[in-house]
Amino acid sequence: GGSGVGASSTASSPERVDRLLSRLGYCARSEAKRWVGAGRVTMEGEPVKRADAKVVANDPRLSIDGEAPDHPDGILALMHKPAGVVCSHDPREGPSVYDLLPARWLKRNPRMETVGRLDKDTTGLLLLTDDGLLNHRLTSPKKRVPKTYEVRVDADFPPDAPTLFASGTLTLSGEAKPCLPATLRVDEAVRTKATVTLVEGKYHQVRRMCESVGCVVTSLHRRSFGGMTLGGEMGEPGRIRVVTREELER
């Protein structure tokens, strides 16, 4: 169970049991009759008799395999992305962040998608959701959601780099529009180390911005996304947890 974060009201509208089971990743619609026949879907402890019966997903009396339906309002998950995995559903690209999710989440419909992407070698905070509207809201440059990265480069950042990053005039090669103003905080003791805060997500943006001032990124880690960070038990790569609506709206 658990409260979802989605903007959709699907969970409070009546829907067929077979559609619900498929939407939440329990089984294909074609298998729903078997699930219902086996008594796996109950209302107040009594088996639901038909796969085409209408139920309301967030009705507290409804159980699937003895538990409340799994995040019927949609899921927003926070992952500590390890190095070496890609943000892609294409198996040809190698091991994927989706391989780290619970099996049932992979069968949800609509499917789970990353909120933006992190490169294969980039680590840190990655969000995933099955709610397309929420995904758009979190990635739209209009919303200016800040994302902070810890970056290490192969040469000292030049003294004027923070001013250039903040100018709103830095245009990356192949781009028509300049980058929105970004914050670069260089570590005074180790000038190859910095944090970068962006409010947009162009392709390989941090790497390309650093290259524009003569620095090649050697490691990149996303520390925060909006008000969310990798605090507490999330310090270990590969960890995943569900984000609550309250956290999202902070």
Automatic annotation (TrEMBL):
GO terms for molecular function: pseudouridine synthase activity; RNA binding. One of its GO terms (biological process) is pseudouridine synthesis. Residues 76-212 form the Pseudouridine synthase RsuA/RluA-like domain. Residues 15-59 form the RNA-binding S4 domain. PROSITE patterns: PSI_RSU, S4. Keywords: Isomerase, RNA-binding. It comes from the Eukaryota. InterPro entries: PsdUridine_s_RsuA/RluB/E/F_cat, PsdUridine_synth_cat_dom_sf, PsdUridine_synth_RsuA/RluA, PsdUridine_synth_RsuA/RluB/E/F, PsdUridine_synth_RsuA/RluB_CS, RsuA_PseudoU_synthase, S4_RNA-bd, S4_RNA-bd_sf. NCBIfam families: pseudouridine synthase (TIGR00093). Belongs to the pseudouridine synthase RsuA family. This is Pseudouridine synthase. It comes from Micromonas pusilla.
